[in-house]
Amino acid sequence: QVQLVESGGGSAQSGGSLRLSCVASGYTYWRHVMAWFRQAPGKEREGVAAIDTKGNTRYADSVKGRFTISQGNAKNTMYLQMNSLKPEDTAMYYCAADSEYCLTDYDRKPDRLEFRFWGRGTQVTVSS
């Protein structure tokens, strides 16, 4: 059974930093895409960043230059380093993974791609 668990959320001041982690267990795929999504109350889900097993990455325009997605050596751990945080980054952040997709699939609909595996989310709150 695949399980994704996020950690590292919390509160930060505007301009501060947080680092999110996502660990996938029961996950032995040699090729996959892992991604971070976020959803704020009353807003649609937004694709934040994605990475494939080769280390290729994608970012939403709203976070480019501020957030960095990376993965661990075992490829079942993903990180999101969030710098220069803004109040509009406040949201629940979810990690997702799927072996059926490549980044080209993600590019077509970065906010709507239906990943098979999801974490429960971790809250990020940025105050001004």
Largest sheet: 7 strands, mixed
Write down the overall geometry. globular
Query: Approximately how much beta-strand content do the residues carry?
Result: over 45%
Helical proportion?
Answer: under 10%
Structural class: mainly beta
Number of helices: 1
State the low-pLDDT regions, or none. Answer: none
Distance between the termini: 40 Å
Average pLDDT reading? 94
> Which value, in Å, is the CA radius of gyration?
14 Å
The SSE order reads: EEEEEEEEEHEE
Number of strands: 11
What would you note in describing this structure?
- This protein is mainly beta.
- The protein contains one helix and eleven strands; from the N terminus they run βββββββββαββ.
- The chain has one helix at residues 103-108; strands at 3-7, 10-13, 18-25, 33-39, 46-52, 57-59, 67-71, 77-82, 91-98, 117-118, 122-127.
- The strands form two sheets. Strands 2, 4, 5, 6, 9, 10 and 11 form a seven-stranded mixed β-sheet that branches. The protein has a four-stranded antiparallel β-sheet with strand order 1-3-8-7, with no helix packed on it.
- The model has no long low-confidence stretch (mean pLDDT 94).
